[in-house]
TrEMBL record:
The species this protein was found in: Pseudomonas fluorescens
Top-level taxon in the UniProt lineage: Bacteria
First-level EC class: isomerase
GO biological process assignments: cell wall organization; peptidoglycan biosynthetic process; regulation of cell shape
Binding site for substrate: D10, S11, Y42, G43, N74, T75, T185, H186
Chaperone among keywords: no
InterPro entries (UniProt xref): Asp/Glu/hydantoin_racemase, Asp/Glu_race, Asp/Glu_racemase_AS_1, Asp/Glu_racemase_AS_2, Glu_race
Annotated family: Belongs to the aspartate/glutamate racemases family.
This protein's name: Glutamate racemase
Catalytic activity of the protein: L-glutamate = D-glutamate
Isomerase found in the keyword field: yes
General function of this protein: Provides the (R)-glutamate required for cell wall biosynthesis.
Keywords: Cell shape, Cell wall biogenesis/degradation, Isomerase, Peptidoglycan synthesis
Higher taxonomy: Bacteria, Pseudomonadati, Pseudomonadota, Gammaproteobacteria, Pseudomonadales
Length: 263
């Protein structure tokens, strides 16, 4: 069981930013990654639809013998993690949500910005997160429609992307925030561009590394950490596998086996 793989999924390539953190912290683990690119963007879908996709993914990874599941997607987590934990109470499941707690602790100006999908920002789980951890700070939320689609197309540098991103960042800067939460796993790929448009003393916070640490904790508690050596990552996509294979190196992964995910 220790050598069984870990299932990781996102609506698309965003979860690769989390996969990289897991690879860094847990190099002995074998990883399976499903990109549900055929249903992107989750951020503009209904919670019911996303819950149904989460359940399909969980069923698939169970069949593959995964010893743990990582929802490398904020939007999927806010919609679906509670149902998954109810349905699979003994399975280690790691979800992720915008880093409101660390951002509230870190801000000096008392103003925190959140870039995330519409679905995440409208969710009850996000509202509860603000009630719990952000009572003493001002939180400015900014949905970012269109960013995910550009990143999925392999665009991390174009003028079109810059213009769209600038429009989302401007209101946060104008409100005096000194800490910006990247509340969608696609956005860490935009860090170089973001850094070029914000003052150097504004911090960008994402949760990929924290997710990897939480996964490590859950596996260690159950004596499930792999001893290695690991197997190469196996990828699936619900869109075009050849396209996905080409985009992997752009996003920091060495090209691997990519299969069609048709569920
Ligand atoms: N990567 C996802 C997240 O963390 C969502 C992207 C999408 O809208 O599909 O929220």
């Amino acid at each position: 069981m220790r050598e069984a793989p870990i299932g990781v999924f996102d609506s698309g390539v965003g979860g690769l930013s989390v996969l990289a953190e897991i690879q860094r912290l847990l190099p002995n683990e074998s990883l399976l990654y499903v990109a549900d690119c055929g249903h992107i963007p989750y951020g503009e879908k209904t919670p019911e639809f996303i819950r149904q996709r989460c359940s399909v993914m969980a069923g698939f990874f169970r069949e593959q013998g995964a010893k743990a599941l990582v929802l490398a997607c904020n939007t999927a987590t806010v919609a679906g993690v509670a149902d998954l934990r109810r349905d699979f109470p003994d399975w280690p499941i790691v979800g992720m949500e915008p880093a409101v707690k660390p951002a509230a602790a870190a801000t000096r100006s008392g103003v925190v910005g959140v870039l995330a999908t519409t679905g995440t920002l409208q969710s009850a789980k996000f509202a509860a997160l603000l009630d719990r951890f952000a009572t003493d700070v001002r939180v400015i939320t900014q949905p970012c429609p269109g960013l995910v689609e550009l990143i999925e197309s392999g665009d991390l540098h174009s003028a079109e992307l810059r213009q769209l991103l600038q429009g989302y960042v401007e209101p946060l800067l104008a409100s005096g925030c000194d800490t910006i939460i990247l509340g969608c796993t696609h956005y860490p790929f935009l860090k170089p561009m973001l850094k070029s448009m914000i003052p150097a003393d504004i911090s960008l916070i994402d949760t990929g590394a924290a997710v990897a640490r939480q996964l490590q904790r859950l596996l260690a508690e159950r004596d499930l950490l792999a001893g290695g050596p690991n197997q190469p990552v196996r990828f699936w996509t619900s869109a075009d596998p050849a396209y996905f294979k080409n985009i992997l190196p752009l996003l920091g992964q060495s090209a691997g086996e990519v299969q069609n995910f048709s569920l």
